[in-house]
Design goal:
The structure holds two protein chains of two kinds. By secondary structure, chain A is α+β, with helices and mostly antiparallel strands. Chain A has 20 helices and six strands. The chains are: A alpha+beta, B mainly alpha. Chains A and B meet through helix 10, helix 12, strand 3, helix 19 and strand 5 of A and helix 1, helix 12 and helix 14 of B.
Chain lengths: 459, 375
């Protein structure tokens, strides 16, 4: 009885108790800055143009086919607004609105073209969504400066813990997905990727060794599975964070993964103590000459003030949100087919750098009952990256087939049939036929059902 | 506080040990065998010194000779002189088939300048455009009509698949602008090729060899991507479109063959295919087999299997090329002998996946030209 009461009260504390607002403030500032930086980097590299403006065709997410890429002006305008809203988050200005705008804009832009799906973009969307509900502007913000009555030193504990939970889900699921035979028993795809880094400073030679790929594979799996627990534990926290830094910088060095490592490194700071966050913000306050508003107030009063919440309404949103997140990544286990081959349930499941997959897809158009079978030059319609993704992602293949059918109908064909000869290589294995070459792909509709028109795993 | 200090000390110690461990291993490996490591620099040096620079050198030499042959022709139009020039143009184009796969670095896109293959290798050429430029004597070549200049515009001026040489000579003698246009077109191609060769010899060679790795922008990635594009150009544009293979085409289009006026498309096709094979092998035109893609693949797990498949498929392509032969021109065979060409086309198609997906996947080469994040 005593134990269960204990667990219950500790559980209750974790959600309904109170804690310092400081970690939320850190996260607000860093997250806003990362989104702003990532968006500016995206624009500076010309990707807004390359990905969205110069392409005529876009791959869509299932259920979000209605989202279309706006004209060039709006592509840039929405990116600009995203920069503004994320900078407003940093400043804590009209926070609830700027957090909501950041979430909506970022997510909307991601829905434009599924070619560019990245797990860390998904993470940013989810995290931005959670930040809408937490009172991260109640201290060290322009909102607090404008309206000192909102200042609060303490917030409900759950507001910090949902962010930790979100990070835990990402890491632990990323660890679970690494438990597969290719990753652990064959050290694939690292056995392919690491040797290509022969020119790397100091470690280039080492990357040639097969055992190094095994060490990295197993270490990566264990890291993802366990790091959150070491971050939660006060005694191991500093060492764990050093590991976080080393791990993510190493992956940044090895792979073209953009800002993802920095997102993870900076967001794990939320595991640090309230004291640490307060100290850091004390330093930052002095640098930017921001008055310490909490101290100007009645300290005693502010230290006990707890931000009131419409807790029930929020629980109604967040409980299903987290249940979804716990269940949705597991949907792939419902399919009997090989996950890497048919990719049923691959996206939105924290499968990060899990396979080396490439393909060569040749599409053919034939008038029904006609003799002439024409080959499609994919280059005429798709960017290099779209062509690359098209060659091995079943849902893209169907979308493209439908697009081609529509295109050639407009060109004057009456009933075009779309077939394809697609060869796919997975983790370095010799390429094999990916779809039934005789099937009219434009007649197949994508669904949650098992993709029978994709060949069975051939290896 | 003390626990934190302890933790930090412990982690520093752990990291230090780990680093020491890495260093010791590295030494051991280098000493034991460094044959296991593929020497990418040696491969790039082989491509630069034995393949790319000699190819541009020969192309440049041939265009230079073509240029000097035109001078006596201009003062004395004769059939014999025309024939010599035609032969030289054929040499130029043959050497171009060995140089057309290296459109990066000095031969890459820069500002308004396109890749070399687009600048001097565009076809089908624009006959009307060329003739109107001849009459208006517009030889600035500064517009975007790349189909009015380049090696195949020169071909058009020197050959006519329907006329005898004597009639071509009279085309020159009756219109003084024609020879001026020819000279200007040759000079334009020469300048571009010479500039590229000059850059390779003075600076870019070292830069190319030093730029190791397999990511976007690395020499290996540039070389690989242009190799694949060149290969696909054979299949799609030199054969596919004339055969009416492209979706949307309603019939064959023999007039779209690569070297329509000289009717030498098949010779060039065979030569280009050989150049691609040699490139893959890292073999120079004079049969010196250096470190190439095949050796690189052999260094990767599973590479041997792919090397064998690729080599076998190369042989299949050459067998079909032999069947097609060069006695009858490509445009005639498209109507007279479509089945053989169809087979050839299919053999090219079968090779594509080995070059495209299997090879880049095994070697971990970035197959896009623009950068992007992965995850």
């Amino acid at each position: 009885m005593a134990i269960s009461t204990d667990i219950f009260s500790s559980f209750k504390n974790r959600f309904l108790g109170t804690t310092s607002v400081a970690p939320l403030v850190t996260v607000r500032i860093l997250f806003g800055a990362l989104v702003a930086f990532s968006t500016l980097r995206f624009l500076a590299l010309g990707w807004a143009h390359d990905h969205f403006i110069c392409a005529d065709f876009h791959f869509k997410y299932y259920g979000f086919e209605w989202v279309s890429v706006p004209g060039a002006f709006w592509v840039y305008a929405l990116h600009g607004l995203l920069v503004i809203s994320s900078v407003m988050m940093v400043l804590g200005l009209f926070y609830r609105y700027s957090a909501t705008a950041t979430f909506l804009l970022f997510t909307y832009i991601q829905l434009w073209d599924a070619t560019y799906y990245l797990n860390h973009y998904y993470f940013i969307s989810l995290f931005a969504f959670l930040l809408i509900f937490v009172p991260a502007h109640r201290s060290f913000s322009l909102d607090a400066f404008r309206t000192p009555t909102i200042i609060s030193a303490r917030v409900a504990t759950w507001t910090v813990n949902i962010l930790k939970l979100q990070l835990a889900i990402v890491y632990i699921y990323a660890g679970i997905t690494k438990i597969n035979t290719d990753w652990l028993l064959e050290a694939l795809p690292l056995k392919i990727w690491l040797p290509s880094r022969a020119d790397y400073f100091l470690l280039g030679n080492l990357f040639q060794q097969e055992w190094v790929a095994y060490v990295f594979s197993w270490a990566g799996m264990l890291y993802d599975l366990l790091i959150v627990f070491f971050l939660l534990n006060k005694r191991t926290r500093v060492a764990a964070f050093l590991l976080v830094v080393v791990f993510h910088l190493l992956t940044r060095w090895l792979f073209p993964i953009g800002v993802f490592p920095f997102v993870m490194i900076l967001m794990t700071l939320i595991f640090f103590s309230d004291n640490w966050h307060q100290k850091m913000q004390g330093v930052l306050r002095k640098i930017v000459l921001f008055p310490n508003l909490v101290l100007q107030q009645n300290v005693e009063h502010s230290s006990i003030q707890v931000v009131p919440f419409h807790q029930k309404i929020i629980a109604l949103i967040l409980v299903p949100f987290f249940i979804f997140q716990l269940v949705f990544p597991l949907r792939s286990y419902l399919y009997a087919d090989h996950l890497f081959w048919k990719e049923q349930g691959y996206r939105f499941s924290w499968r990060v750098m899990l396979m080396e997959k490439a393909g060569d897809a040749t599409f053919y158009v034939k008038e029904k009952n006609g003799m002439r079978k024409g080959e499609v030059f994919n280059n005429d319609f798709l960017t290099a990256q779209q062509q690359k993704q098209l060659a091995f992602q079943p849902d893209f293949i169907l979308q493209y087939a439908k697009f081609l059918k529509h295109h050639y109908k407009k060109q004057g064909m009456t009933s075009p049939e779309i077939t394809a000869q697609i060869y796919v290589t997975l983790n370095g294995r010799p390429s094999k036929l990916f779809v039934d070459s005789a099937v009219d792909l434009s007649k197949i509709n994508d669904s949650w059902a098992s993709k029978k028109w994709v060949t069975n795993y051939p290896f | 506080m003390t626990t934190a200090t302890k933790t930090i000390r412990f982690s520093l110690l752990a990291i230090g040990t780990f680093c020491a461990f890495l260093f010791s291993c590295q030494k051991e490996n280098t000493a034991k065998d460094d044959t296991e490591n593929f020497d990418q620099k040696a491969m790039l040096a082989n491509y630069a010194d034995n393949i790319i620079i000699p190819s541009f050198t020969e192309l440049s030499k041939n265009i230079g000779e073509l240029n000097s042959l035109v001078i006596p022709f201009a003062s004395n139009y004769s059939e014999a002189e025309l024939q010599t020039i035609q032969q030289k143009w054929s040499d130029v184009y043959t050497s171009w088939t060995w140089a057309n796969a290296y459109n990066f670095g000095p031969a890459g896109e820069a500002g308004i300048k396109k890749r070399l293959v687009e600048e001097i290798g565009t076809w089908p050429i624009n006959v009307t455009g060329i003739n109107s430029k001849i009459s208006s004597m517009d030889t600035s070549f500064s517009d975007f009509q790349r189909d009015t200049r380049g090696l195949l515009a020169i071909e058009y001026l020197l050959y006519d698949e329907q006329l005898a040489n004597v009639q071509i000579v009279s085309k020159f003698s009756s219109n003084p602008n024609r020879i001026l246009y020819l000279k200007a077109a040759i000079r334009n191609a020469q300048q571009q090729v010479d500039a590229i060769l000059n850059e390779w010899e003075n600076g870019y060679r070292a830069e190319f060899i030093a730029n190791t790795g397999t990511s976007v922008g690395s020499s290996t990635s540039l070389l690989y991507n242009e190799f694949v594009r060149s290969y696909e150009s054979i299949k799609n544009f030199k054969l596919g479109i004339p055969l009416g293979k492209k979706a949307g085409q309603t019939s064959t289009e023999p007039q779209k063959v690569e070297a329509r006026f000289s009717e030498k498309s098949l010779e060039f096709l065979a030569e280009n295919t050989k150049a691609i094979e040699y490139c893959w092998l890292g073999k120079s035109k004079n049969n010196m087999n250096g470190i190439g893609w095949d050796d690189y693949l052999q260094s990767a797990t599973g590479g041997n299997d792919l090397v064998q498949k690729t080599t076998a498929q190369q042989q299949n392509i050459f067998t079909e090329l032999k069947t097609v032969g060069t006695n009858t021109s490509l445009q005639q065979q498209i109507t007279a002998n479509p089945a053989a060409l169809e087979n050839l086309y299919n053999e090219y198609q079968k090779q594509t996946r080995f070059y495209k997906s299997d090879m880049s996947s095994l070697l971990g080469i970035s197959i896009t030209f623009s950068d992007a994040d992965g995850d």
